[in-house]
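#random but structural
TW: two for the price of one
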Amino acid sequence: MVNLIIVKIGGNAISKLNSEFFEQLRQWRQAGKKVLLIHGGGPQISKLSAQLAIPTHKKNGIRITDARTLALTKMVLLGNTQPALLMRLAHEGLAAIGLNASDQQLLTGTYVDQDTYGAVGSITGVNELALSKILNGQIGVLAPLALTPTGDWLNVNADTAAADIARVLKASQLYLLTDVPGVLKDGKVISAMIPQDIPHLIEEKVITDGMQPKLSAAAKAVHAGVHAVCITDQLTHPGTTLKTEAND
């Protein structure tokens, strides 16, 4: 999709968004860019799970999602984090709309590995026509949930969802906002990377835990034609930029 910028915002990052973030969104909209925000909610899901005595299990940085965890995830994403982000945007005078997979079948998906992860999925299809029309006049705020063709809900890692959607829609830019300024090595941000760097950095334990699915998703996005993926804690800070060699 021409002029599409996708920004993934982690659950922790929503409460820390500053005026620079909203000003950047405003500038993009004024320049005619389409903006889609994909919001997470991992910390909030973990907190509510603990309060309800629902065990949290993760494997390879992915939340194992049984029926109770799926119901809780939907409740947090659609009833807590999405409204919180929409309120911030409204307060800043930015027109925005909350979206989920059931709106005009925006997102379809498939199970990643049902035996291992339960109701965890990846995005296989996006209703591009409907989404393009929605984004013409406002910022989209989309939850990382998908529906199978038979109507089963899937929990999708927000980084993976953002990268999958960027890949399917051929977005021009993808930002993965997190609570760290980028990929850190010896306390310093690695400013630029190519996908081939990732296995070595995992082996060296530079890339661990939650950063692994981020970079795996980012690598797939750049291979599929997204010009650049930026991992940062602020839109106005360069952070770590992942590109293919051909784009350098």
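TW: number two ↓
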Amino acid sequence: MDQVNPLVSTYRREARAGLHDIAPVAVAAVPIGLLFGAVAAAKGMSPLEVGLMSALVYAGGAQFAAIETWVHPAPIVALAFATLLINVRHVLMGASLTPKMKLSRAQTFLAYFFLTDEAWALSERRALERPVTGAYWAAMGLVLWGNWTLSSALGAILGSFLGDPERIGADFAFTALFIGLIAGFGRSRVTLVTVAVSAAVAALVHHFIGAPWHVASGALAGIAAAYFAAPEEARS
């Protein structure tokens, strides 16, 4: 009787866990992808261009920011700076997640192309119990990347047939999902203080200064809050 290879069994188990965890995120991403595709098509982009942008850039917030300010000729410097501010949080997420990944340095750099807020949150939650394996990350990353690319291209094809997603609350789907993911981290004092300070600072900066400064401001405020809220021995 053939014996099951334990490495293959572990790989499949980790991949199934990644698929299981990312499934609700993928579902919530569909209306956001459709919305982005429709907005991009209204700006004059073809479905092929929208699909390529999503596949190669793969940064929903930055893509929305870019498409909202899209004119001809495109303000390259302004778009690049806005994208940098929005995506600088990935540096912090990567620094937090890297020690918990069972990957080589080269594999980690490749894997972080698929880094998103939701993949980071799910991986951090899984890392509370076990290291994050390549199979788990690949299952999450590839599914969400493919889902975002296809849904945004489909949104560009459907275009005006979609109507306004705000009527059914589809524009809030990702936000609600991410709030649920953050809630899963627990209710320790450090977590509550970090989330509260980060959210408050981001909201204030967005109100008084505007996007995209609120992203970097909220992230930096959260880091500072986590440092000062942590026990003294953890800071040494």
